[in-house]
Amino acid sequence: MSTSRVSFAFGVLVFNHESYIIEHLESIRYLIEQYGEGMDFQIIINDDRSKDRSVALVEAWLAKYANLFVSVDRLYNDVNLGTCASVGNMVDALCAKYFKLTAGDDVYSGENIFNVIPDLAVHSIVSGVPLDLTDGVISKSGFDVFHSIAADAIYDQGPLLRRFKGISVNNAPNIIYQVDLLRAPAVRRLLGQFDVVEDLPLQVAIAESGSDASFKLINKVFVYYRRTAGSTYLVATSRFFKDQIKMFEYLIAGESSAVKRFVLMNRMYCFKSGVRIVKRLCNIAVAIYGVKCMLKFWGIRERVARFESDLDLEAHVRHYALIKGRAAAFMNASFCEVVS
């Protein structure tokens, strides 16, 4: 890649995404064609041993649009490695200066994601606010919006690790990490200890990387978040559970305060119970978070109102309709020739 041009890589995590992967790739094409003039692009596609036609679809799309990228990296796993090992391999393949990792069933919005590049020079982690994509419908989850903003208000001051030790909503599809931190040995070591939950190990390791580690929440929607039958928490429930417990144990072992360690142990116990009412009513961390929300309620509410005022939901609906239409046109014109 040219050292004189801004370089940006899209990382695509694929697992049984044949129904959605073309929408995802078309949303990447939109961003490059709309906002990417003068930039170099890399795409790294990791398929974690899909059992459907995901890889064939990816290849059909690349046959037509590979020219959008200076570098195309195909990482097709012979066996199911898990998300964390796959992410590590993608970071190894990374040659661009900036990198956005997203699952192949999510869809990029029409926002200019490249505008966050200056923020990544200052902040370790930059995030947008999520919109939901469920059954083909774009919608705003009041819960997700409120608690994304609440977490930012509550944990804005002090060490970044507080955010990830406490109750907080951090929408992984909308998060972008500094590339140098993703490559850091300590970050890679912690990521390598986990299986399918990649976001928490990355976030915790980055937060532990130094006192200047920081998180910036931007009042923009970068990715529409879709939960499908391919979502990690559905297809790898036991692996997801083990990773969550392992993260609790890691945080507990590293906590020097007896009180904070007890809160983490209580939270782990509630998580292990699997009982919703126990998770809510017996979880000390939830109570602490609730009190902090009440203390900062008016400031949080003001920020939520500002986000909702700036949000043009209909524009996002139109954008998704455009992407969905392009994906359907591609499937009709191209895929049938390759796979039929």
What are the salient characteristics of this protein?
globular, about 350 residues, Spore Coat Polysaccharide Biosynthesis Protein SpsA, Chain A, alpha/beta, single chain
Q: Secondary-structure blueprint of this entry?
A:
Elements: E1 7-14, H1 21-35, E2 40-47, H2 54-65, E3 71-76, H3 83-93, E4 98-103, E5 107-108, H4 117-120, E6 125-127, E7 131-134, E8 137-139, H5 142-154, H6 161-165, E9 175-177, H7 179-183, H8 185-191, H9 199-207, E10 215-217, E11 223-225, H10 232-235, H11 237-254, H12 258-273, H13 276-281, H14 284-295, H15 297-310, H16 313-339
Pfam families: Glycos_transf_2
Protein name: Glycosyltransferase 2-like domain-containing protein
Keywords: Cell inner membrane, Cell membrane, Membrane
